[in-house]
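Dear colleague,

Thank you for sharing your sequence with our group. We've completed the structure prediction you requested, and as agreed, I am returning the results in plain text so they can be pasted directly into your records. Please verify that the sequence below matches your submission; if there's any discrepancy, let me know and we will rerun it promptly.
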Amino acid sequence: MQPNLKLLLSLLVILYSIQFVKCTENRLEQLERIVGKLQDTISMLSKDNANNKRLVEDLKFKVNEQEERIGALEKGCKIESRIASSRAMKKRVGYYNDSFNEAIEDLNANMPFWRKAFEDLNANMPFWRKKVKPNTIMKRTSFSDRGSSENVAFFAFMSQDLNSPSVAHNLIFDVTPTDIGSHYNKYSGMFTAPRSGTYVFTWTIYCSVGGYVYEQLMVNAEVLDSSNCNADGAGWHRSISGTAVTQINQGDIVYVRTHPTSLNKGSILSSSSHRSSFAGWLLF
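Please find the predicted structure tokens below.
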């Protein structure tokens, strides 16, 4: 680049000096020589430009070659990483295969022990178990297998409070969320046994603040159990619950009533937050 600058500077100097040359016959030769020098300089500059263009083209070609080499190197690196991953995977698979083979060998080595253990188990099996065939399925009997008439259960509660209940008053639990078999009468508060068997009955009574109520669980005209809800002197309502298991006959009537002689005070409470309820079901 420095020779080109020098040539340009010389051209400028020559052009600047031409302005001061007087057009005389003695100077014509000098001007011709100057013009000749200018032409030589221009031809040299043209050659330099051509060389520079070739240099630029060569550089572009070399840049493209380098880019191709870089792309090839990147592909090679990716292939090498995949090869390394596959080698690592092969090592893991080989490890698992070796572990599996060792486990199989241990199992084969200990097979006589397990075979003898099964033989001893079969030899010591109870007599009744040996009678069962291998493909026999033992079916468990459930209540649903006995028929719908065997399923007996009910749950009922009072829809509202009962104010000042009298003596020997049958308590009516008039809401029945559960009544399997339809053996509970929500209008009379009485349950009628559909068949003889063992039944479970339970009841819960809430009494008002300062009050008390005496209850009895009745089977026909006989008292089976009794309870007393007592909130006398309490600052909040109280409750009492009772449970009885009894064997009754088909057609027997079970219900809850107040005591025939003991007086009651206050109310029996029943609401969404505390329900007075009565329930029962066939046990077997």
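Summary note from our side: The first helix runs from residue 2 to 18.

Kind regards,
the structure core
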